[in-house]
Amino acid sequence: MKKNVFLLAALCAMGVVAAQAAGSTTSTGWISDSMCGAKHMGSGAACVKKCIEGGMKPVFVDPDKQVWAIDNPDAVKAFYGAKVTVTGSEDSGNKTIHIESIVAAK
Prior knowledge:
Number of strands: 5
Helix content: 25-40%
Number of domains: 1
Mean pLDDT: 84
Largest sheet: 5 strands, mixed, barrel
Radius of gyration: 17 Å
Structural class: alpha+beta
Distance between the termini: 54 Å
CATH class: Mainly Beta
């Protein structure tokens, strides 16, 4: 019985991982702050850093200038104000993204 429960739990865990991976998207955009949003794309890194230090939350601005809240903000600490390529799981209903990987864009 214990073996069956363990097997069922393992299968469920693999299903969750597969579902999350299937929902991943990759996009290039900017890390900004929740107050300025798309206002500083490419020209306001100092402002973005100052706003985040002042309590604003980091956000991802996609190429269409849509602003996405980041549900794991520690993932983007090294990229405030930068142009980046992110891979993550989007929740379009809530306009949030969970960053799975991030690199500086070329």
